[in-house]
Every structure is written in structure tokens, then in C-alpha cells.
Amino acid sequence: MTRRRRTVARRRMLTASFALASLTLLFAACDTQGGSGPAETLDTFDASTTSTSPISTPSTSVTPPPPSVGLSSDRWSPAPGVTWQWQLTGKIDTSVDAQMYDIDLFDTPKSTVATLQSQGRAVVCYLSAGSWEDWRPDAGDFPAAVLGNSNGWPGERWLDIRRIDLLGPIMEARFDLCEANGYDGIEVDNIDGYTNRTGFPLTASDQLAYNRFLANAAHDRGLSIGLKNDVDQVDQLVDLYDFAINEQCAQYNECDTLTPFIDAGKAVFHVEYSLTTSTFCPTTTELGFSSMRKHLDLDAWKEDCP
Predict the structure, then answer these.
(1) Among the CATH numbers 3.40.50.10470, 3.20.20.70, 3.30.450.90, 3.40.50.700, which is that of 15-304?
(2) Largest CB tally within 10 Å, which of 114, 182, 245, 303?
(3) How big is the chain by its Cα radius of gyration, in Å?
(4) Phi, psi for 131 (deg, rounded to 5)
(5) Can you give the chain as a three-state secondary structure string?
(6) Where are the domains of the chain?
(7) C-alpha 176 chain-centroid distance
(8) Which residues does the chain have with pLDDT short of 70?
(9) 40 C-beta neighbours (distance < 10 Å), count
């Protein structure tokens, strides 16, 4: 499988950032007309694939699911078909019709989690477990020894996930905060560093050890946890993770790798950014995925599969 790391769709990508990216692409196109040749493609995301065409805003009518949807006596266990909303930028719109909300740990007040749960929704706590982000309140807790290359996003660097002795206490403190704020589950981002140019000689075994540590830490706190991307290790991790979250499996022809979650009765929460719903929904709906289209900055807008 071709290794490309997209680490896409997360925080701090506001409208001004997209405008700057568009201008950069325009100037680059002009330069290539002068015969200088195309610039080297970064191994991250391609802003030029982001749709800018006008599209409808989310419906404000909500039919909340009953409180028991997707819940078990031990921890939240979403089955295939649970609907979801993923918002990491802007004030959380609590009116979107979805059974699960995936929102940022540090940017979301505890009261918002309580509001969503009072409406009968499960709430997932987003955090990055594989990258250092310089704007997070605990950024100073990360030793310099674990900070690697930039992952292509401003202020972010890959982590040396081999050093569970150093990273483990930091991640456990974050999980403790998820638990204290009342979340039902956790999304851990950037947990496929071994397929990227991190600056460290990470192996598949290193990633499995770290990802297993994260799953066990979540379960120790009564929280479910989702396997984010890392499609090459689904078979080894499906029994330990409670659901999957995937970006762009349709665009990169990887959706079949996620079917072990469906076979195990676990939800696959899937998003595309540049493909239209008519392009990917027939396939992913047939597979049993909970699919939608989102803006790359993960604001409140979404377009569910019909």
C-alpha cells in the first residue's frame, strides 16, 4: 500500500488560512508558467482538493436519539449505523441532528458536553496522541527528546511514540481530563506515525505497542476509544478498539480495510472532504459505515449520506 500521510482535517484551519493557501497555489501556478517546474509535493494534505463551491448549511431541526442508543453497561459501544457530528473549530452547534458528537478536549467547556448528553447524545473527546501541538495548555510537559519533525501543520511536530515512559503520563493526564469532563469516548489522532517521516525510526511494532497502551488507558477509565486511520493495523487492533474513525478511505481506495470493525459489530465513522456524497455514499453505506462529507476545517457544516 502506498504510504502517504495526510494527517488531515483538524483545528486552527480557519478561513484566513484557506485564503492564504489559495493565494500560494495561484502564485505557484504562475511561477511554473515561467518554466521553473512544479514544486516538490509535501507529504501531508492537498489544500487544492478542498471544495469551495456553495453548499447548504446544516439543518437546525433535531430529533435526539434516546439516551440508551449505542450505550452499554460498561462503556459506550457504538454499533454500525450510529450517526455522528465532528466539529473541531468554532462554537459547537448543539442543534445538528447526530447521535454522537466528536469535539475537542481543550477547546470545549464541560458544560457543552453536559448539554449534548442531556439531549441523549454520546460525546467523544478529541485529542492528538501522536503529535505535539504548541498551543495546548500542557505543551510544556513534553520533553524535547520526544519532539520530531513537523507533520506539516503549523505548530505541530511528530512524537517519538517509542517513549511510552515519557508520553504515557501526559496522555493519561489527558484521558483523566476526558473522564472528568464527562466524555463517553476518546478519539486519538495521529496514531499512524510509523508510516510518516517523523524524524524517528518508528516501526509497525512500535505503533502497535503505543496504540495498545492508549486503548488500555482509555478502558481503565471506563471510556471507549476509536482507532483513527492506521488502516494497515486494523486486523491487529480491532479487538481492542471500540470503533474506528477514518478520513478519506473512499478517496484513497482503503475502505475495505475497515470492514473488520463492521464484522465485529463496531461503528466506522467515516468522512470525506473533496468527494461528493453521490461518489462515495453508495459504497460506504453498503459497507455499513456512518459516512458524511465535511469541510476540511471541521466546522459545524456536514452533509450526511442520504
Answers:
(1) 3.20.20.70
(2) 245
(3) 19
(4) -135, 150
(5) CCCCCCCCCCCCCCHHHHHHHHHHHHHHHHHHHCCCCCCCCCCCCCHHHCCCCCCCCCCCCCCCCCCCCCCCCCCCCCCCCCCEEEECCCCCCCCCCCCEEEEECCCCCHHHHHHHHHCCCEEEEEEECCEEECCCCCHHHCCHHHEEEECCCCCEEEECCCCHHHHHHHHHHHHHHHHHCCCCEEEEECCCHHHCCCCCCCCHHHHHHHHHHHHHHHHHCCCEEEEECCHHHHHHHCCCCCEEEEECCCCCCCHHHHHHHHHCCCCEEEEECCCCHHHHHHHHHHHCCEEEEECCCCCCCEEECC
(6) 15-304
(7) 20
(8) 1-73
(9) 6
- Grid coordinates belonging to 205: 511494532
Give the CA distances from residue 167 to residues 130, 207, 213, 230, 280, in Å, rounded to whole numbers and listed in that order. 9, 13, 11, 19, 37
Q: Rounded CA gap, 87 and 76, in Å? A: 20
Q: Which three cell numbers stand for residue 21?
A: 493557501
The predicted pLDDT at position 164 comes to 98
pLDDT in tens, 250-275: 999 999 999 999 999 999 999 999 99
Separation of alpha carbons 122 and 243, rounded Å: 13
The β-bridge partners of 273 are none
Query: In terms of Cα–Cα distance, which of 215, 174, 219 is closest to 76?
Result: 219
CA distance 218 to 205: 20
- Tens of pLDDT, residue by residue over 75-111, are 999 999 999 999 999 999 999 999 999 999 999 999 9
End-to-end CA distance of the chain: 31
Phi and psi at 301, nearest 5°, equal -65, 140
What sign has the CA pseudo-torsion 279, 284, 230, 244? positive
For residues 85 and 98, the answer to whether their CB atoms sit within 8 Å is yes
CA distance 268 to 123: 16
Q: What is the distance between the alpha carbons of residues 266 and 252, in angstroms, rounded to a whole number?
A: 22
